[in-house]
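User: Second chain of the day. Same drill as before.
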Amino acid sequence: MTRLELQRLSQAKVDDAQLLCTNGRYGNAYYLAGYAVELGLKACVAKQIREHQIPDKALINGIYTHEAPKLIGLAGLSGALKEQQDRDGLFQSYWAICAEWKPDARYVMNDAMSAELLLTAVGDPEHGVLQWIKAHW
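Assistant: Same format as last time:
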């Protein structure tokens, strides 16, 4: 999967999450919003992989995680994340919400408040996590 494909999938997932939330499908909206963050971070990790070089084994194995905090480290964004959190308190809160997402959310019927909160954390155009990720992918 290419970096561009991951970027497109990330945006498609958040767009779909928005549609689902609008139509009362909160559980799936929640799941897809979190998945959008995961895919966006994987696009950032893909940026670390250079053509004609064998990537570090730990990087390759790590790509298969679903944990946003681990993906931040693999993407080399730990410092940038800390700087953004220090600079923007709302972003810091949004990141905390996104970092709690787990892929097991696909088995949970989340309520409207949970879905809307995660969607705001992901999609806020000024302070949202996906907006920040896009600046790094």
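The chain has eight helices and no strands.

User: Great, on to the next one.
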